[in-house]
Specification:
A: two-stranded antiparallel sheet; two-stranded antiparallel sheet; 24 helices; 2% strand
Chain lengths: 639, 289
């Protein structure tokens, strides 16, 4: 399996190459090749894995040399964090890097000898993550080659740091591959730190003051998580003398006391990475970066890292206080951020809040930790990755066209840039409408939380899905409304590469929707089989048939209805405006007899549910929950 | 799927518009009597729709017909799934998808009144959705399944376990049926601040489609009310019909005795009632089962 180190190292090599090339054309061509190679490598990797029986593979027991390299790299990373934080007068943040790194270095060099174990672990979950990262990540790079050109045509005041940007994108992918394939907890920690620092650098891209503020917020939150991760790992290593993720999970499942604290700390770290309350603000601030990086951070990779770790831990969290903590925080985040999303008219902010909200649902699924909830969580993850990435990219491309990403400005987008509007429409439909997978995952999550007798979760899901459909539908309505009278005409300047990526996402979205019952049987059930002793079959067969039926109906009916309505002769009239129409649906006469342009706007309720109103109270609440529950758990173990 | 549920589906598809239309006619008649008018004949809704169907097609936006047709078909599918004895939660998911197509049909015109009405319709959806989902949860907790057939063939009427859910469902029924005091999206009477709201720009055949869909929808909703009552005893069918008629009468009574509320109040009220009535019932059920 030489392809495993290749997957991790190749993107890192690509990162160095990207950094050195100044010519846009050469760099873009190479980036495209790099993305192609990554996809091919993932395909080869998956093929090889299937050829070996598609089961659990463990690799690399003896890795002393690599361990030393990783330690050295980790110390380098620490030095960088110290440098950058002191340079920007935020030296205190470096503590979150110094403490864990020093501890790990000490542990590595002078600590007890660990029981030898595999360093790489390949199973259904990690292969799934690799597929998501490889495919969506590469597509985002393809998109970025076109987008960054348009971005700098539009933002002329900014310094063009594209080489650096592409280098980071590749580095990120490499780190993510390493993260999901690693079994050794120290390796996991290392890749974790890389993604934290990468996201920091991506957010600072524009070098504006606000960008630095947001980036440092992301940095300290993620590093705080990393610190707890290191505590958990070292605690477990000190007592048990093992460093395997699966050793930890199995001792957690066995109910051993030694696993309680490591699971708690690692779950806490995952909460920060997955931007759960009270740490949601870093992800919202990350929106300031160019769109490909938001797509990469938000949809496919960075935030999924937290979810991935929670899924890994979920069997160990089932029925424990840690599990309840994670579920409550996740469910609360799900509902409260979906409220906040109602009040946003900035498209990227809506996407960010909805990301946090969906991550909340996945987190809650992991916290409940039964095979049913993980089934729902895995599908939520897959569908969310694709449709969010699609949405980010189409919003980004739309912004390059309209020079605005305000949803109010997207009124009638379907008639201005039909292609992009169609992709946005598919993406949004994928987020909440039947028959797309998000909905069926919600079905399953709701059923599972009833089965678990979790009243709070039931209430969260029922109310949260009402608010979720509200903010998505009003956005969809904006896109398809008949256009306002606009003074400027817009030209679709979407580059071919951007379009290719959008197309791949769109096709994937629809293919997954159709193939998803199959995917459940062939892939997700075995995945659950690896994690749980006796996974329940989540989808009863009658639901499966109903689903196929609904899929047919929902795709066929609008199509046929459209064909039919096109044929019928219609007499077109002006819309009703109390008789003050001025001969055009987009204008009317005001009381002075002057012609006015008509503007329709959505409801936002920002005084009621705006971020300003809700964020701080909900952070306080979530922080209180986390602190109190962590105290209870830690106290229970120590005393 | 067996022949039994197939018959139910066919009967629903064929008869629902007639039952819905009759209920509508009754509604008008009773409302008129409450207002000391004679009122139109019982079959007036059918005459209206027949006339609308004969008219030349008039529209403001091209795609409205297609969106309304989708709304119509998905609503029929919802009812068919329900009476065919499929998954209750799935029925409501399809229903919410169909309702969103209605919203689209409202906003696609960019006409001011229609857009305002459609947006309020969206708020109404947000107001009733938690109660609807919680009702499904209630049935699932009490019956151990979402399957409508299995729920309907129980020995005891489920209202015995689910009074709180029943209460909140009847409450949101007023919102769902767009009756006063919650007719914020389409007012019953002309010349109000939102004209005819959502339906302002629907003319001729489009309005007929909307009307027929509403009949299908009402029959489906009454079916859900019936699900609370019906049990394996054949006599329960009689009780079911009586309760449905009583609930429908209650809706008419509320409609005629209350003035329209602002949407803020509506949202607040419906969520509070859902939380308390359904929530309490949920807690009790969870402890018991």
């Amino acid at each position: 399996m030489g392809v495993v180190p290749f997957l991790i190292l190749f993107p890192m090599v690509m990162a160095c190459i990207m950094f050195c090339i100044k010519s846009v054309k050469v760099r873009n061509a190479l980036a495209l090749c790099g993305a192609g190679v990554i996809i091919a490598a993932v395909a080869y990797f998956v093929g090889l894995w299937i050829a070996r029986g598609a089961g659990v593979l463990t690799l690399y027991v003896e890795t002393e040399m690599t361990d030393h390299i990783i330690l050295a790299a980790e110390i380098l990373l620490m030095c960088f964090v110290i440098y950058i934080t002191f340079k920007h007068h935020r030296g205190w943040i470096s503590l979150f890097s110094i403490v864990p790194t020093v501890l790990i270095a000490y542990f590595d060099l002078a600590g007890p000898k660990m029981v030898a174990g595999p360093h790489i672990y390949i199973d259904h979950l990690s292969v799934l993550m690799c597929m998501i990262i490889g495919l969506i990540g590469s597509m985002i790079i393809v998109y970025a080659t076109g987008y960054m050109v348009g971005y700098h045509e539009h933002h002329t005041q900014l310094e063009n740091r594209s080489p650096f940007f592409f280098a980071l994108l590749f580095l990120f992918l490499g780190a993510m591959f390493g993260f999901v394939l690693s079994e050794n907890l120290l390796w996991i920690d290392f890749f974790w730190e890389i993604t934290s620092v990468c996201s920091f650098l991506l957010i600072t891209y524009t070098k504006e003051d606000l960008a630095y503020t947001n980036a440092f917020r992301a940095l300290w939150m993620n590093l705080l998580g990393g610190t707890f991760l290191a505590f958990g790992i070292l605690y477990y290593g000190m007592i048990e003398g093992k460093m395997g993720m699966h050793d930890l999970v199995s001792s957690g499942v066995g109910g051993e006391l030694v696993a309680t604290l490591p699971v708690l700390f690692i779950a806490f770290a995952a909460l920060t990475k997955a931007a759960q309350m009270p740490f949601s603000t870093w992800l919202l601030g990350a929106m300031i970066a160019p769109t490909p990086s938001s797509a990469l951070l938000h949809s496919a990779t960075m935030v999924k890292a937290g979810i991935y770790i929670l899924f890994r831990l979920s069997p160990a969290m089932h029925g424990t206080t840690t599990g309840s903590m994670v579920a409550v925080v996740g469910g609360f985040t799900f509902i409260i951020t979906s409220f906040m999303a109602i009040a946003q008219s900035d498209a990227k902010k809506v996407l960010a809040l909805s990301t946090v909200s969906n991550l909340g649902l996945m987190t809650a699924c992991a916290g409940m930790g039964t095979s049913q909830t993980i089934w729902a969580g895995v599908f939520l993850m897959v569908f969310h990755a694709i449709s969010k990435s699609l949405l980010f990219q189409s919003v980004g491309a739309t912004e390059n066209v309209l020079h605005s990403r305000d949803i109010e400005n997207m009124h009638g987008l379907l008639y201005i840039v039909p292609r992009l509007a169609a992709f946005q429409f598919i993406g949004i439909a994928g987020m909440f409408l039947a028959p797309f997978g998000m909905l069926i995952s919600k079905w399953s999550a709701l059923k599972a939380s009833v089965d678990e007798r979790d009243i709070l979760m039931v209430i969260f899901i029922c109310f949260g899905s009402a608010t979720t459909s509200f903010y998505w539908s009003k956005w969809m309505g904006k896109i398809i409304s008949a256009s306002h009278l606009r003074e400027t005409t817009y030209k679709d300047i979407t580059k071919k590469s951007e379009f290719t990526s959008l197309m791949v996402h769109g096709i994937l979205m629809i293919a997954l929707c159709v193939l998803f019952p199959l995917l459940s049987q062939v892939y997700v059930m075995p995945l659950l089989g690896e994690m749980f002793a006796d996974p329940k079959d989540v989808l009863p067969s009658y639901i499966l048939y109903t689903l196929v039926f609904i899929i047919l109906i929902v795709f066929l009916v609008p199509f046929l209805a459209y064909r039919y309505s096109k044929k019928t002769a219609t007499n077109f009239k002006l819309s009703y405006m109390n008789g003050v129409n001025s001969g055009d649906n987009r204008k009317f006469y005001d009381y002075m007899g002057e012609e006015k342009t008509l503007w329709m706007s959505n409801y936002y309720f920002f005084r009621l549910v705006g971020i300003r109103k809700l964020m701080i109270p909900s952070q306080v609440f979530a922080a209180a929950v986390v602190v109190v529950m962590m105290c209870i758990i830690v106290g229970g173990v120590i005393l | 799927m067996n022949w039994h549920s197939l018959i139910f589906i066919i009967v629903y598809i064929l008869l629902a518009p007639f039952i819905g239309g009759l209920l509508d006619g009754m509604d008008r008649k009773i409302s008129a009597r409450m207002q000391r008018r004679v009122g139109p004949p019982l079959l007036q809704p059918f005459y209206d729709v027949a006339k609308l169907l004969k008219k030349q097609n008039i529209a403001v936006a091209t795609s409205q017909t297609f969106l309304l047709l989708t709304y119509f078909v998905l609503m029929v599918v919802t009812g068919a799934m329900f009476f065919g004895g499929s998954d209750l939660l799935m029925c409501f998911f399809v229903m919410s998808t169909s309702a969103i197509f209605l919203y689209f049909a409202g906003v696609v015109t960019s006409s001011p009144y229609s857009t305002i009405g459609a947006q309020r319709e969206l708020i109404q959806m947000m107001a009733y959705e938690p109660a609807v989902l919680l009702t499904c949860v209630g049935f699932y907790l009490a019956a151990g399944t979402f399957n409508v057939n299995e729920i309907a063939s129980h020995d005891i009427s489920y209202i015995a376990y689910l009074p709180g859910f029943f209460l909140s469902f009847v409450f949101i029924l007023t919102i769902k049926m767009r009756k006063s005091p919650f007719d914020t999206s389409t007012s019953h009477h002309m010349h109000q601040e939102l004209v005819k709201g959502l339906t302002t720009e629907m003319g001729a055949r489009n309005l007929a489609i909307f009307q027929i869909t509403e009949w299908y929808e009402n029959v489906f909703l009454m079916g859900v009310i019936g699900l609370f009552i019906i049990n394996s005893n054949p006599w329960s069918i009689l009780a079911t019909v009586l309760v449905i008629l009583a609930v429908y009468f209650l809706e008419i009574l509320i409609d005629n005795t209350s003035a329209r509320m602002k949407w803020q109040k509506m949202l607040q009220l419906s969520w509070i009632i859902t939380l308390f009535a359904s929530g309490m019932n949920l807690i009790i059920l969870m402890i018991r089962k």
